[in-house]
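Dear colleagues,

As part of the handover before I leave the project, I'm documenting each prediction I ran so the next person doesn't have to rerun anything. This entry is a single chain, and its sequence is reproduced below.
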Amino acid sequence: MTEHDHEAEQFYTIDPAAALRQKRKRGWLTWLLILAGILLLALLVATLGRNYLQGKDTYAPKGPYIGVLFVEGSITSSNIDSWGIPFGYQHHFTIATIDDLIDDANNTGLILYVDSPGGGIYESDELYLKLVEYKELTGRPVYSYMGSMAASGGYYVSAPADKIIANRNCWTGSIGVTIGTIVDISGFLENYGIKSVTITSGENKAIGGMMEPMTEDQIAILQALVDEAYEQFVTIVSVERGIDLAYAKEISDGRIYTASQALALGLIDGIGQYDDAIDDMQTTYELTASEVIEFHYRSNSLLGRLLSDMDLPTLPGSEASAVLSLIEDGMDFPISYLSPLLD
């Protein structure tokens, strides 16, 4: 073998490990390009087409029906995950669906399926008022069926129902208001020689901030907000359940009740399964000819459908950011009808 041949042999010798790494790299690159293409196509279709929440099932009832509307998860304006995919309770969809039921002459009744730890004061009250409007405009019955939990705001939206039936394992009650936990880290900062300065237009503009302790006046300001919201809540319980206001306040100290305890206190009307609530409405209001139609939200966005079918991980974050996020979650404003234990 000549020296030239030896050099050529060395030149064309392939390292198996390097070749494997190169093959894997090309494989990952190919999959990334395919995924990017799918996402780009989904975004294009979503942009050109409709991209909003639509909840009605594809099956449209031809005759009389009882609508079942699901209130699952926290009652807030928007529940989306870290990928922007809607999940759980969707407020705008829920309100719009009730409006549709009001205008639909085929609708004969409404059952609210509640499985929620509560939520925002605004959203809970808006849903409550929309249910009251449904009753007043249509004269049709409204039931609430409580699943595993219907606490705080979950009970608030159930209050106007003509009948409340809870699963025997349901936790309910938690009638009260929270403004969350306000954390003061000023002492911690001082121990490390850290000073902070907050520039505001008034002494109460930064109320509830973490950087300095709250004054007694500031605590009183926030307590007044909580008290007013509580009075609204407990008055609704009194009026809708037909119980004395003083008694309503006595049992509305924020505690959670089991289904049997709630029944004994007059907060619910019965204990049973989902089918029992349906049968009760059909029998009581002579609606046996009405079929039952369940309403769930779904996204018409192709991207939303695509990602919702994929098992995607939560976006990563550091331990420090997770701790800060936990602190921020406890300081969320505004005040809410939410049971922290069940959230």
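The longest strand covers residues 107-116. DSSP finds twelve helices and twelve strands in the chain.

All the best with the project,
I.
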